[in-house]
Specification:
The chain has 6 helices and 7 strands; from the N terminus they run ββααβαβαβαβαβ. The protein is α/β, with parallel strands linked by helices and 160 residues long. It has a single domain (8-159), classed as Peroxisomal Thiolase, Chain A, domain 1. Strands 1-7-6-4-5 form a 5-stranded mixed sheet, with helices on both faces. Strand 4 (72-76), helix 4 and strand 5 form a beta-alpha-beta unit. Helix 3 (48-63) packs across helix 4 (87-95). It starts with 7 loop residues before the first strand and ends with a strand. Mean pLDDT is 90; it is low at 156-160.
Length: 160
């Protein structure tokens, strides 16, 4: 098993530590030494599912694959706009794939768990080409008045 291609998308809006200090009792001098974070990308008018589809298309292009060649899609996602359909199903439709798909709710460790699941199916001989999408939008659940957590979790990432 190998990683054949990657793709990613980040939200347009960037929130710096100095911007956070405008409404929180904090500063870059407090945040950076504790977290290593100077700025974060925050979803504003974008939709997580659109960004996930775009990143999936980039990964397929990078791998030289068509969506029709996929055997399975695994999506790690904690916060999603919909209860159903799952984000993997939305990605499947957005890229035009016809394979089974699965969502897992594993937060930071989601990519590693998804790789393990893909490898298990691969070793069992049931799949050859798996798309793994990790799409997160913690800004939706972040308490922006709590400096202990918003400086860490107030970001959005879509990685493949």
């Amino acid at each position: 098993m190998k990683i054949a291609g990657t793709g990613s998308v980040l939200p347009k809006k960037i929130v710096t530590n100095d911007m956070l200090s405008e409404f929180l009792d904090t500063s870059d001098a407090w945040i950076y030494p504790r977290t290593g974070v100077r700025s974060r990308h925050v979803i504003s008018d974008e939709k997580l599912e659109d960004m996930a589809v775009e990143a999936a298309k980039k990964a397929l292009d990078d791998a030289g694959l068509q969506a029709s060649e996929l055997d399975f899609i695994i999506c790690s996602n904690v916060v999603n706009e919909y209860i159903t359909p799952q984000l993997s199903c939305i990605i499947q439709g957005g890229i035009g794939a016809k394979c089974p798909c699965l969502d897992i709710n594993c937060a930071c460790a989601g990519f590693i768990y998804a790789l393990n699941i893909a490898e298990s199916f691969y070793k069992a001989g049931t799949v050859k080409k798996v798309l793994i999408v990790c799409a997160e939008e913690p800004t939706r659940m972040t308490n922006w008045s709590d400096r202990r957590t918003c400086v860490l979790f107030g970001l959005s990432l879509i990685h493949i």
